[in-house]
Specification:
Chain lengths: ~325, ~260
């Protein structure tokens, strides 16, 4: 199709000066992109200051808690056998010598963390891929919406731990079982979130895409998927919590490796230092990954929409 | 390419079994500028959606150059109040997206998009994301996209309602230029009386009681550019104003 437009040349010509005021509107009346507003540096400085303050409060809050704990132990208010004070736990945690178990099942903190994290990563990757496929099919095919959506809706609210006995019978107590539990923990909720996000795309986008007779593949790749990316990332962040809990619960309930298993084994051997370290590791890793996902969400949404501020507001 | 001839024949729309919109006959001449004017709820937007082939009427039909509309109308272009541009694409990317769908190669589409944006005074902003543009600039990108498509039918749903008065006036002028240069038939929905009298060849006044319907059709044979202080324009505006006020009273009474 020849799209050279004879009118376009005329629009450009001085014969139509009425476009000029339009051009002028791009001038001082409107916000000029690319131009650094004087407030921008101050804004950035303010943001850094807030981040530093938040970090300082974080450290202070933990300092107070650990200090109180330490003091209470020395004052004889806490039993050091059951709640070992931070002065014993922290140096041990940082020594890199945290080990528990015997023989083949003996493992260190870092190995346990790597095992659990890789299960979460594998389960979430599979879960996301399957949820995306399901959401696309449910959106595209009416029969799939009618048949698959009710099932997904009923599966989503099942607590991930409820899958553990079933999974152990089905898959055994190996790593795949943990991956499967993580998968089940995220698949339902992710699918529902993605379907909802697809339904919430502003109708104007789809009307315009239809009007432009966008081929189906381009509609998905260039319109629908970018449109839902911010909410998909939010859903993924929420799903991570479920996945993280599910993997640990599975490891505590029979799967014989990973961070959850380390805690259970330490409890059975009455090594409360390792129990405490395990719990702290769960919190710290969960927190760190949540922050990383939040950063990814902000960064990607900002990159897509060209305005990180919008993404931040949404987060 | 000349504008399309658009004809509505006994078009009706129902919601929950109740007839909400009925237009027995409405013809839009090729290349004419038509405005659908009425209070909210009178079915203006529904009529536009039916014309665009985005929604099917429950009864009757719309034809474009005699061909019944049964899906998105070829050679038509849409402009809405919001969300005209995909925020994840640059201004030029949005225009190029339309060209790519029409089969233009990636590189040629982008070059052409930049040139079209220059036509509406946005050369410097071609590579900016919509979020970095003002409301008026975004609507100008949407108009540049319609230029790219050489539409024979230009459908606008309150395209300038979200803009401030000054920007709106500039955009109305840009729209008239786009209309003149594409030769398209325009169907524009608005509830802005001034906008209607300044732009339209024909104003289709819609009423909402007892259901959405065409109450009157006014032809405005005045040359452009029009001034709102022109006595002829003012007299039409006064007629419209009286009609809309009466409509509001009737609708309130009915409710």
């Amino acid at each position: 199709m020849e799209l050279a437009l004879p009118g376009a040349a005329a629009v450009r010509s001085p014969a139509t000066p009425s476009l000029e005021p339009g051009a002028a509107a791009a001038g001082p009346l409107n916000a000029v992109p690319g131009h650094v507003e004087p407030g921008l540096l101050a804004q950035w400085r303010g943001r850094v200051r807030r981040a530093v303050a938040a970090a300082a409060w974080f450290v202070l809050a933990w300092g107070v808690l650990l200090g109180a704990w330490e003091g209470a132990t020395h004052a004889g208010l806490l039993n050091a056998q059951i709640l070992p004070p931070p002065s014993e736990t922290l140096p041990y945690a940082l020594s890199g010598q945290v080990r528990i178990g015997f023989g083949q099942q003996r493992m260190g903190l870092s190995d346990a963390v790597v095992v659990t994290l890789s299960r979460v990563a594998a389960g979430m990757t599979l879960g996301l891929a399957a949820a995306l496929l399901a959401a696309v099919l449910i959106t595209e095919i009416r029969l799939m919406r009618r048949l698959a959506l009710p099932i997904v809706q009923s599966i989503a609210p099942i607590a991930p731990v409820a899958w553990i006995p079933f999974t152990i019978v089905l898959v055994g107590i190996g790593g795949q079982a943990a991956v499967f539990i993580v998968f089940m923990a995220v698949f339902g909720t992710l699918t529902l979130s993605l379907v909802a996000a697809l339904e919430n795309i502003p109708p104007e986008y789809l009307a315009i895409a239809r009007n432009l007779r966008t081929p189906r593949a381009r509609l998905w790749w260039n319109v629908r998927l970018p449109a839902i990316l911010p909410s998909a990332l939010t859903a993924l962040r929420m799903a991570f919590f479920g996945a993280w809990m599910a993997a640990l619960a599975g490891e505590m309930a029979g799967i014989n490796s990973g961070l959850g298993y380390m805690i259970v084994m330490a409890q059975q051997m009455y090594n409360m230092k390792v129990v405490m370290i395990g719990i702290l590791a769960i919190g710290l890793i969960g927190f760190t990954i949540d922050r990383l996902l939040l950063g990814l969400q902000k960064g990607l949404s900002g990159a897509l929409v060209g305005n990180a501020r919008d993404a931040r507001r949404e987060a | 390419m000349p504008g399309a001839r658009l004809e509505f024949r006994r078009v009706a729309r129902r919601y929950d079994g109740v007839q909400r919109l009925r237009v027995d006959a409405l013809d839009l001449a090729p290349g004419s500028f038509n405005v659908l004017l009425g209070r909210s709820g009178c079915g203006k937007t529904s009529l536009l959606e039916i014309a665009a082939g985005l929604a099917a009427p429950d009864e009757g039909m719309v034809t474009v150059d005699g061909r019944p509309v049964d899906g998105p109308v070829p050679d038509s272009a849409l402009v809405f109040q919001h969300h005209n541009l995909f925020p994840w694409m640059s201004a030029a990317g949005n225009v190029a997206f339309a060209l790519r769908n029409a089969g233009v190669g990636a590189k040629a589409a982008l070059e052409r998009a930049v040139a079209l944006l220059a036509n509406v005074g946005l050369a410097e902003f071609a590579h900016e994301r919509p979020s970095r543009l003002s409301g008026g600039m975004r609507q100008r990108v949407a108009l540049a996209r319609t230029l790219a498509l050489e539409p024979r039918l230009l459908l606008l749903d309150e395209p300038f309602s979200a803009l401030d008065a000054q920007t709106r006036r500039l955009m109305q002028r840009t729209l008239l230029d786009v209309w003149r240069h594409t030769g398209a038939t325009v169907l524009m929905v608005t509830h802005d009386l001034d906008e209607a009298v300044l732009l339209a060849d024909r104003i289709v006044l819609m009423a909402s009681v007892p259901h959405g319907r065409v109450a009157r059709v006014l032809d405005l044979p005045f040359h452009r550019p029009r001034l709102r202080d022109d006595p002829a324009v003012r007299s039409v505006a006064a007629t419209l104003d009286a009609f809309l006020e009466n409509e509001a009273l009737v609708a309130e009474h009915a409710a």
